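Researcher: Here's the sequence for the chain we discussed earlier.
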Amino acid sequence: MDKTLILNEIKKHYKFINDSAFAQFLGISPTRLSNWRTRNTLDYELISTICVDIDANWLLSGKGEMLKILDEQHQIIQEKKIDKEKYIELLEENRELRKEIDLLKKQKNSNASLHEMQMQEH
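Model: Thanks. This is the structure I predict for it:
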């Protein structure tokens, strides 16, 4: 993988506008960062130490997810997924209940009309 692309993605993730600010964040000189780009290399240990949320496998290969998914984040994602599924289930149940209510209202109105007609006959 092109190390320049990896560096660009990390820079973009941390929202640095220029290489000078990115280099300062990494604790290196802009010249050193420029050399990494020119030589298509980087200091993996330095970056993994400074950029703690960057996944080491992605840093080495450029494949997979750039950001680590921590156990806590994974738990939150699972809970949100369950919440969404439960919400959808509740919406469907609500629709069915509304249909039942409408049907009962129609039956009630029909029974009331029938009762009224019977009362008029007597």
